[in-house]
Design goal:
The protein is of the alpha/beta class. Helix content is about 40%, strand content about 25%. It has 6 helices and 8 strands. The strands form 2 sheets. Strands 1, 2, 3, 4, 5 and 6 form a 6-stranded mixed sheet that branches. The structure holds flavin mononucleotide.
């Protein structure tokens, strides 16, 4: 990437996995990358020519703050990257979840779009969330599938 390319990584994370992925992306993209947690408010992206969006997935849906952000932000002139964090394992299911998460025109526009894995820390979940994750994903103990290779590929695609 050229010296003048500024990248904003904007993420919505309930339990920290998407935040962790965003931080790893920022580290690999270098000093021109800035991190914005939507929990702290919606960032002004006018100074950024490249924008990466990431969200955790809950019952097939993005974290609400990312949906709200997408309703207000104009990304039409940005170099775009899109990712989700989730616990699905099968490649086709991961792909379907990604396609459902972002509008088709944004996915078409994106330099990179990917499922980058996820993490569940049981002690961070409430009772209801623990019950759902047991039922839906058959997860009973802590698990980390954050995919460093996919993160590297994502960064490469963003740099092309
Ligand atoms: C209640 C609950 C529902 C979930 N539903 C899904 C889902 O539908 N698909 C998926 O891929 N992962 C699902 N997950 C796994 C999370 O997406 C995964 O842990 C992700 O890394 C969380 O990101 P975050 O910590 O940034 O919020 C679910 C997790 C919980 C606790």
């Amino acid at each position: 990437m050229g010296d003048l390319v500024k990248t904003a990584i904007v993420y919505a994370s309930k339990h920290g996995a998407t935040a962790e992925i965003a931080q790893r992306l920022a580290l690999k993209l270098g000093s021109q990358a800035s991190l914005f947690d939507l929990a702290a408010g919606q960032p002004d992206l006018s100074d950024y020519d490249t924008v990466i969006l990431g969200s955790g997935i809950y019952a097939g849906r993005k974290v609400a703050q990312m949906n709200e952000f997408l309703e207000t932000v104009d990304l039409s002139k940005k170099r775009l990257g899109l990712f989700i964090s989730g616990m699905l394992q099968a490649t086709d299911q991961r792909q379907a979840e990604l396609q459902a998460a972002y509008p088709a025109e944004l996915i078409d526009q994106a330099q990179a779009s990917a499922f980058l894995g996820g993490r569940v820390v049981m002690s961070k979940l409430g009772f209801a969330e623990r019950s759902i994750i047991r039922l839906v994903a058959k997860i009973k103990s802590d698990i980390d599938t954050i995919d460093n290779q996919a993160i590297d590929e994502f960064v490469e695609q963003m740099s092309e």
